[in-house]
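Quick question: who can interpret this fold?

. . .
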Amino acid sequence: MTIYKYAAKGPGGKTVEGTIDANDKTQAVAELRKQNLVVVKVEETAAPRKTAAKGFVVGQPRAKKSELVIFTRQLSTMVGAGLALLESLEVLADQAESAGMRAGILSLVNDVRGGVDLSVAMEKCPKVFDPLYISMVRAGEVSGQMDIILERLADYQESTENLRREIKAAMTYPVISMVLVTAITAFLMLGVVPGFRAVFDSLDTELPWITSFTLETAEFMKSHWLLCFGGLAGAIVGSLVFLKTETGGWFWDRFILKAPVFGPLVRKVCLARFSRTFATLIRSGVPIMGTLDIVAETSGNRVVTQAVLNSRESVRSGNLLSEPLSQAPVFPPMVVRMIAIGERTGSLETLLEKIAEFYDAQVKAAVKSLTSMIEPILITVMGVIVGGVVMAVFLPILDVVGKLGGQGG
């Protein structure tokens, strides 16, 4: 298939521009005429590329989460105001900021103009619209409440994005601090400590163990700096490659849930995401089996995914959702009991939203607590490293000064 850029006149005489996929130019013209368009120009073009200010697009169009939130909110407002879906998409394509978002919306415009449902058109842009998004749009098409569904989807995206930003902001400081600690340590060991070897050799005194250890370590690092940095880089790359595998992913997901300090935080994030996604899909009218599939796919942790998939099989057999979830250690009793109450009373989505709100608040409190706890720990680590190096360097000098002072007395 080749991408063709076209310009045509619509039924009202309005000029329409866009792109279309076709095997050749003749087929492209024929497809446009089927859409009641008078073709003005059709020419072959490459996939959307990046301009210096807009962004780079290769293959499938991509878009930032923040752009998708704005797109969803604006599309909901336009559809709710009575604007036709196709016209709304054309307006949003014109004002899209990045090339990836524009390419994705133009793809929707072409397909919707050809009579394709919006949810089906979105399936062709998986890098922009995930399964949760597509399922909710499909539910909106079936129920005829597209504007309401899109508004709920925008609310869900904003809540998820706000939580992600808070966690990212909280983790930025520790990461930068650890990089600075590593850089300062490397500078001291490679650039400062080795210069004292000649000074200490000229002193007629036995070096303390901490000084000898620091000097030997610094000399090894300076003589084998390529090996040290290469080994560190290799360990990092090897770990990342291992974590990309299925075995590595399972290892990491299990480890992070049980890790001290970070484990409870990750668990709360997973439970907040599970509850909010589940509630949003159920409230929007997505069938329970499809909801469980999407919730499992978007959980962000394989342990949670497996627990949800197990519950899906149980529900398929006619059992309650809460029964298999109670067997999964990742779901606390409070969550299981609230889900069970929701199933009995028919208010599952309401209770799931309450769970999501509870864990959102828990995550925010945990992030603040973690940030306030990590700061003194990192300062202590930095003080121990720098103070240890300074002590190692100055102890022999102070010892010599003390001996000279005693002799002078």
